[in-house]
């Protein structure tokens, strides 16, 4: 998360995650992202089968927020609570598309041809 290109308002929030940088995890994020495509598609299928994601169009999904009402953060002890809160408070409300979207901020996918 410390590598995301975010606005100045989020700079102080983002720097909290520099402590998690590990010199042994030196890999190209975009390459890893592409190599995980099978895992990502499998995860999406699982979320659709449990009705956590609802298919809207060909590859467009909507999150069923009702399915998260009962989820407690303590069930995710391996994930840092600060990271979960950062995602929930700052990344979730962001648009996915465009030069200010998550695709551009993460640099994992091209946003140049996004239809806005």
Summary keywords:
35% helix; ABC-3C_MC5; mainly alpha; 5% strand; 116 residues
Structural notes for this entry:
This protein has one domain (8-18, 28-106). Helices cover 35% and strands 5% of the residues. It has five helices and two strands; from the N terminus they run αααββαα. It has helices spanning 11-15, 29-35, 37-49, 81-91, 102-106; strands spanning 53-55, 61-63. The chain has a two-stranded antiparallel sheet. A hairpin with a 5-residue loop joins β1 (53-55) and β2 (61-63). It is globular.
**Which percent range fits the helix content?**
25-40%
**Proportion of β residues?**
5-15%
Counting DSSP E segments of at least 2 residues, the number of strands comes to: 2
State the strand order across the main sheet: 1-2
Order of helices and strands: HHHEEHH
What integer value in Å does the Rg equal? 16 Å
Structural class: mainly alpha
- General shape: globular
Spans of 5+ residues with little confidence (pLDDT < 50)?
none
Largest sheet entry: 2 strands, antiparallel
Cα(first) to Cα(last) distance is: 25 Å
How many structural domains in the coordinates? Answer: 1
**Count of discrete alpha- or pi-helical segments spanning 4 or more residues:** 5
- Calculate the mean pLDDT score and round it: 77
Pfam families: MC5 (PF20291)
InterPro entries: ABC-3C_MC5
Q: Quick gist of this model?
A:
By secondary structure, the chain is mainly α. It has helices at residues 11-15, 29-35, 37-49, 81-91, 102-106, and strands spanning 53-55, 61-63. InterPro entries: ABC-3C_MC5 (IPR046901).
